[in-house]
Automatic annotation (TrEMBL):
Protein name: Large ribosomal subunit protein bL31B
GO BP annotations listed: translation
A cellular-component GO term for this protein: ribosome
InterPro entries registered for this protein in UniProt: Ribosomal_bL28/bL31-like_sf, Ribosomal_bL31, Ribosomal_bL31_B, Ribosomal_bL31_sf
Keywords assigned by UniProt, alphabetized: Ribonucleoprotein, Ribosomal protein
Xref: Pfam families: Ribosomal_L31 (PF01197)
Record family assignment: Belongs to the bacterial ribosomal protein bL31 family. Type B subfamily.
Assembly with partners or alone: Part of the 50S ribosomal subunit.
A GO term for molecular function: structural constituent of ribosome
Length: 83
């Protein structure tokens, strides 16, 4: 690898503000903010959604009634597609 052309890869703390969860991840993202976690200082990034708060991962996902949508579509437009 050529020296001096690659971004600095280091451990960064991501903070999910909606679930108040902290994640330490290796990243090259640039930030001027820092946070102290586990007695060490890390670069700090806030995010609004992560696997801790996203409805798909938490099991709080709203189930869409697909059968109802299909039935409504066929009721409205089925006569145009029948032979």
């Amino acid at each position: 690898m050529k020296p001096g052309i690659h971004p600095d890869y280091r451990t960064v703390v991501f903070h999910d503000t909606s679930a108040d969860a902290y994640f330490k991840v290796g990243s090259t993202i640039k930030t001027d903010r820092t946070v102290e976690l586990d007695g060490k200082t890390f670069p700090y990034i806030t995010v609004e959604v992560s696997s801790e708060s996203h409805p798909y991962y938490t099991g709080k996902q709203r189930v869409v009634d697909k059968e109802g949508s299909t039935a409504r579509f066929n009721q409205r437009f089925g006569r145009f597609f029948t032979k």
